[in-house]
Amino acid sequence: MAALTEEQTMIRDQARSWLTEQYPVQKFREMRDSQAEFAFTPDTWAGMAEMGWPGILVPEQYGGLGLGYLTFGVVLEEIGRQLTASPLFASAFVGASAVMLAGNDQQKQQWLPAIADGSQIVTLASDEGPRHVPAAISMQASRNSGGFELNGNKTFVLEGMAASALVVAARTAGDAGDQQGISLFILAADTDGISRHALATMDSRGYANISFDKVSIPADALLGELDQGYALLEAILDRASAGIAAEMIGTAAQSFDMTLDYLKNREQFGQVIGSFQALGHRAADLYTDKEMARSCMEAALQAIDDNGENIAELCSLSKCKTGDFLHFMSNQLIQIHGGIGMTDEFDAGLYLKRARVLESCYGNQAYHRDRYARLLNF
């Protein structure tokens, strides 16, 4: 684990205290059972905005705190521990990254202050099928007299129902699979011709499929250069992978802590089960794997902050290693708890369901393992 700065440690402790007291996993359960409209409660989002979290990445000149990706990562880890549902990651991490990387100064002035104060929820709409394949974009953005017309569909858009604005990857030239010819656009989510359809997912979050039917947008909705959006999209997705890995570590770490607590307290044959050698060895292996995954996660976020040359490979390494650990740890959480782990009344199932969805977001382990190998010319 990297040594956090004094400021990062303070922010982590503040986040842990606030989330544990105000929005523990029980609050998530209540939100799920109440079937909240956007799969998060407005007071959760308002509280995060009051804490200043939506502005962590946004530079000070645009109304944010400019504290960087690793600092945001320590907050996302604590959110992952409590399964707290909010648009913080989708908007203030991924949406803000998109505008910061691709936007011109006018676009940054328009969108970043609103992201930082939580008044706008900006999310990325990229994937179009069941798998994460960034180049396989077929959604068309054709020229018209006023700018562009969008036609096509996007799937599994994070916070797609709650979003007030969308960053959309569309094809302005070439065919699906070509890296050349992809462009990025930012537009209001209530623009005429946009239809949103809520998805029911096992982790009870606010995903949506979004359809675009003759959606007219002005020329100044273009982010970056025409036909040159693929490199920008990859950079945004790298940051998304690194950020979601931080949340994954939090979910996995809480799963580990719950398991360790059970090993220390559950008695069988007159003694606590943690004293059994096989279970003790298993816990030691899990702890080692957890710290290895955490190191990969922190290295990726630090590389982004440092504008390193190996950001892409570290982000894929991070997503893959945290995915591997989260998958195994969530299974162990259920297995070691035995029968009670299978019940909905016990929290273990909530962590397992969240784990499976997080693994697939922005590419699963197989995708990132293959990408990592290609980046290193294997």
Provide an overview of this structure.
By secondary structure, the chain is α+β, with helices and mostly antiparallel strands. The protein is built from eleven helices and ten strands. Strands 1-4-5-8 form a four-stranded mixed beta sheet, with helices on one face. The protein has a four-stranded antiparallel beta sheet with strand order 2-3-7-6, with no helix packed on it. A two-stranded antiparallel ribbon has the order 9-10.
Quick recap of the structure?
The protein has helices spanning 6-22, 25-34, 42-51, 69-82, 88-102, 105-116, 229-265, 277-305, 311-337, 348-360, 365-375, and strands at residues 122-125, 140-143, 147-157, 165-171, 182-188, 194-198, 208-218, 222-223, 267-268, 271-272. The chain is α+β, with helices and mostly antiparallel strands. Helix 5 (88-102) packs antiparallel against helix 7.
Q: What summary fits the major beta sheet?
A: 4 strands, mixed
Q: Report the top-level CATH class of the largest domain.
A: Mainly Alpha
Strand content: 5-15%
- CATH architectural label of the largest domain: Up-down Bundle
- The residue-averaged pLDDT reads 93
Please report the distance between the alpha carbons of the first and last residues.
Answer: 29 Å
Low-pLDDT segments: none
Please tell me the total number of domains: 3
- According to DSSP, the number of beta strands is 10
Shape call: globular
